[in-house]
Amino acid sequence: MTGQPEAPAPGEEAPEGQPAGEVLLEAVGLTAGYGDLAAVRDASLRLHRGEIVAVVGPNGAGKTTTMHALVGELPLMRGEVRWLGRPVASPLHRRVREGLGYVPEVRSIIMSMSCRDNLRLGRGDLGHALELFPELEQLLPRRAGLLSGGEQQMLILGRALAARPSALIVDELSLGLAPVVVGRLTEALKVAARQDGCGVLLVEQQARRAFAVADRWYLFRNGRNVASGDTKSGHQAMEQAYLASTGVS
Ligand code: ATP
Fold first, then answer.
1. Cα 169 from chain centroid?
2. Which one of 26, 35, 168, 212 is CB 3.0 to 4.6 Å from 101, fit for a cystine?
3. Closest Cα partner for 242 from 30, 53, 58?
4. Per-residue pLDDT tens digits for 182-233
């Protein structure tokens, strides 16, 4: 991979520029896919406590497949997922009980239920969801299907963050939403990371958008994790890595 080296193994010291927080979630040589076909091969990444990490790459790069494998929705063909320092093979609901939050690409709310009841389906405190997104308060009795796309995404993210997860994976937070709504959502992610120490793995096709909120990034292309880096070094590093991965430089 280009960009900065991988974070240290447990017990090793972090090299300069590496996050020093505890490693919450880790993929080592992750290979996963559908049927006999691997859609992502040999991907490795780490998520530390209190950081926001962007996973970027074009359509079909393998980002969502990697997230499905990380949360336990898709079995691994090869490699390992480590959660809270231990290899895991448990299903998603067990990992959720242990503090893993997951906001999938497809909006996971029940459209016929009220906003309040959807929030109650989560493991968290309704009050905390309303603290993060006060605009949800007046929408509580409304059916989720009647909310705007942005309001639905606030409901979903508010529910996920209300459980105060140790780590949160968010797949395509901003798809089709107005910049002002995306700003509200990313602000809530920053609060979770900076104040509560939540590690956030944020999948985004819009690399620049993800870059604006993230501490580090991983670039996926053609089912491979081709580069990684630190956002402090500027977005040019990511753009160069992208061009290099296409054979243009
Ligand atoms: P996008 O940004 O468009 O969501 P992505 O980077 O998340 O793309 P994936 O959704 O992981 O990419 O897809 C990786 C590859 O796996 C693609 O070639 C896709 O067609 C294939 N794929 C995804 N889901 C399935 C599935 N359920 N069955 C078979 N192939 C799939």
1. 3
2. 168
3. 58
4. 999 999 999 999 999 999 999 988 887 888 899 999 999 999 999 999 988 7
